Amino acid sequence: MERVFAYGTLKRGGRNHALVADRLLYLLPRYVEGFCLYHLPEGEGRPYAYPGMVPGEGRVFGEVLFLPREVLPLLDALEDEGEEYRRERVLVHTERGPLEAWAYVYLGDVGPALPLPEGVWPIVGS
């Protein structure tokens, strides 16, 4: 089993949650620290808006998805792992204590993106 920290379109109700919904074994909400969240709007090669999490001083809220290991290549393809995002281990703070999970960290330029200091996505109108 793998744990994946979802903070955007893979969360419950998100555009891409259906990719993992039937394989989801368990879900645990909470947050990671040491990251900032940005809203990346539709356009510039993006067919729809989605968020990007980058290292920084902040907190990002999301959900830990407990999934079978065979789902990781599907998520790597979705996130364009190694190009647009990098999958790395993060420490997630949950109501059951801290745990490690994979997270997709954005590799692009966040200069033109909208910062989300509350650490929550989606934003209204996204």
From TrEMBL:
Pfam families: GGACT. InterPro entries: AIG2-like_dom (IPR009288), GGCT-like (IPR013024), GGCT-like_sf (IPR036568). It comes from the Bacteria. Residues 4-121 form the Gamma-glutamylcyclotransferase AIG2-like domain. This is Gamma-glutamylcyclotransferase AIG2-like domain-containing protein.
